[in-house]
C-alpha cells in the first residue's frame, strides 16, 4: 500500500522476542533490562494472523528479528507458515549466528530465503568484550555451515564503531573476497546504548578497504530489501555494501514498517508513532477492523527521521534496539 507521501510499503520487520543470547554493548544494557513477559509477546498464531492481514495490504517481504530470533522455540514452524501466505515472496532472518550451526539445516528446510548475520569483529577477545559472551567460534561455524549447505543468500552486517572495531573492518570485508557473501557496513544510529559510541564514516572505510583490496567500483545491482549502496572490488566473489541512515538518509524511499515482539506496529525507527495491535487482537476485533486500523496507521507513516537534528525531540521512541529489531 501507499502512505501519504506516495511511498510503497511492502517490507515488514517482525521482532519475535526482546531476549537475546548475546548482550552487545551498543544494543542492550548489561543490567536492569526489563524484559517482556511470555504473555506480553505475540504468539505465533497472532503473528501469522497479522501477517495475513499485512500481506493483504501489500507486504511482500518479511524479515524476522529480535532480540535474537533463533532462541524462539519452533521458529521453523513459524517460517513455514509465513512462507505459505500466497502474497509473501520472501521470509529472511537477521541473527547473531550463535545458533546457526545447530539450526541452519532446519531453517533452510522450512523455506527461509536468506540470512543476515551480524558480526562486528573477528577478534575473539574483542567479540567477548563487545557481546559479553566468548562465542565468536559459534558465529564463524554458523557461516561455514551455511556455506557448506550452499546457501545462496548470506549477508554479513557489521556496525563500524570507533571504540570497538575500526581495526577489524578490512578483515570482515574479506568474507566477500573469499565467498559469495555480501558484507554490509551499517552506520550506527543514535538509539539507546549507541549514544556512548562513535560511528565510522563510509569514506574512511572505503579508503581502508581500497588500500588492502584495490580500487572499488560502484555496483548498481539490487540485493535485499534495503537501501544499501554496493561496491565491487577486484577478484571479490561478493559485494561490499553501505547503509548510511545518518549520512545518506533514505527516508524518501523508505518501504518498511516494524512489528515489535509485544505487537506494536512501529512506523519509523525514531518515533513512537504507531498502534498496539496486540490490544486489538486480544480484544476480539475482527480482521476487517484490524486491517482498517493498520491501513490508517501506515498511511500516516512519518515523512522522515530527525536523528541529525537535536532540536526535534517530540514523539521520540525510547525503545532500545533489542526492543525494536534493527
Ligand atoms: N540479534 C539479531 C542480530 O544481532 O542480528 C537481531 C536483532 S539486532 C537488534 C539487528 C541488527 O541491529 C544487528 O545487526 C545490530 O548490529 C544492529 N544494531 C543494533 N543497534 C544498532 C544501532 N544503534 N545502530 C545500527 N545498528 C544497530
Ligand atoms: Fe542481541 Fe543482536 Fe542486540 Fe547483539 S545486536 S544484543 S545479538 S539483539
Write down the overall mean pLDDT: 96
Strand order of the largest sheet: 7-8-9-6-5-4-3-2-1-10-11-12
CATH second-level architecture: Alpha-Beta Barrel
Number of domains: 1
Number of strands: 12
Helix content: 25-40%
Describe this structure in words.
The chain has helices at 44-56, 75-83, 100-110, 124-131, 136-148, 162-165, 169-178, 202-213, 277-282, 287-299, and strands at 11-15, 61-65, 90-95, 114-118, 154-158, 182-186, 217-219, 229-232, 240-243, 256-259, 264-266, 274-276. The chain has 326 residues and is of the alpha/beta class. The protein has a single domain, classed as TIM Barrel (Alpha-Beta Barrel). It has a twelve-stranded mixed beta sheet. Strand 1 (11-15), helix 1 (44-56) and strand 2 (61-65) form a beta-alpha-beta unit. The longest helix has 13 residues, at 44-56. It is globular, with a radius of gyration of 19 Å. The two termini are 22 Å apart. The chain binds S-adenosylmethionine and iron/sulfur cluster (SF4). Iron/sulfur cluster is lined by residues 20, 22-24, 27-28, 66-68, 96, 118, 321-322. Iron/sulfur cluster binds at residues 20, 22-24, 27-28, 66-68, 96, 118, 321-322.
Topology:
Blueprint: E1 11-15, H1 44-56, E2 61-65, H2 75-83, E3 90-95, H3 100-110, E4 114-118, H4 124-131, H5 136-148, E5 154-158, H6 162-165, H7 169-178, E6 182-186, H8 202-213, E7 217-219, E8 229-232, E9 240-243, E10 256-259, E11 264-266, E12 274-276, H9 277-282, H10 287-299
Parallel strand pairs: 1-2, 1-10, 2-3, 3-4, 4-5, 5-6, 6-9
Antiparallel strand pairs: 7-8, 8-9, 10-11, 11-12
Bound molecules: S-adenosylmethionine and iron/sulfur cluster.
Amino acid at each position: 500500500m501507499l502512505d501519504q507521501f506516495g511511498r510503497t510499503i511492502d517490507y515488514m520487520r517482525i521482532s519475535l522476542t526482546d531476549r537475546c543470547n548475546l548482550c552487545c554493548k551498543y544494543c542492550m544494557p548489561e543490567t536492569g533490562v526489563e524484559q517482556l513477559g511470555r504473555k506480553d509477546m505475540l504468539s505465533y498464531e497472532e503473528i501469522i494472523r497479522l501477517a495475513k492481514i499485512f500481506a493483504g495490504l501489500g507486504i511482500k517481504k518479511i524479515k524476522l528479528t529480535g532480540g535474537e530470533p533463533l532462541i524462539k522455540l519452533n521458529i521453523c514452524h513459524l517460517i513455514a507458515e509465513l512462507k505459505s501466505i500466497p502474497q509473501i515472496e520472501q521470509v529472511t532472518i537477521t541473527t547473531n549466528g550463535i545458533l546457526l550451526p545447530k539450526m541452519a539445516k532446519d531453517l533452510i528446510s522450512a523455506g527461509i530465503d536468506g540470512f543476515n548475520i551480524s558480526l562486528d569483529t573477528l577478534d575473539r577477545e574483542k567479540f567477548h568484550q563487545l557481546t559479553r559472551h566468548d562465542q565468536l567460534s559459534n558465529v564463524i561455524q554458523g557461516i561455514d555451515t551455511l556455506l557448506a549447505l550452499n546457501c545462496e543468500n548470506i549477508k554479513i552486517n557489521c556496525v563500524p564503531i570507533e571504540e570497538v572495531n575500526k581495526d577489524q573492518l578490512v578483515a570482515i570485508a574479506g568474507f566477500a573476497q573469499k565467498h559469495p557473501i555480501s558484507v554490509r557496513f551499517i552506520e550506527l544510529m543514535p538509539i539507546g546504548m549507541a549514544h556512548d559510541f562513535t560511528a565510522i564514516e563510509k569514506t574512511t572505510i572505503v579508503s581502508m578497504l581500497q588500500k588492502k583490496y584495490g580500487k572499488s567500483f560502484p555496483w548498481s545491482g539490487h540485493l535485499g530489501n534495503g537501501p544499501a549502496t554496493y561496491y565491487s572490488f577486484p577478484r571479490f566473489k561478493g559485494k561490499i555494501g553501505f547503509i548510511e541512515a545518518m549520512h545518506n538518509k533514505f527516508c524518501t524511499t523508505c518501504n518498511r514498517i516494524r512489528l515489535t515482539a509485544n505487537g506494536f506496529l512501529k512506523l519509523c525507527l525514531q518515533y513512537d508513532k504507531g498502534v498496539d495491535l496486540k490490544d486489538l487482537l486480544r480484544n476480539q476485533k475482527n480482521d476487517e477492523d484490524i486491517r482498517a486500523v493498520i491501513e490508517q496507521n501506515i498511511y500516516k507513516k512519518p515523512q522522515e527521521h530527525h536523528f541529525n537534528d537535536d532540536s526535534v525531540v517530540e514523539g521520540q521512541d525510547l525503545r532500545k534496539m533489542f526492543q525494536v529489531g534493527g
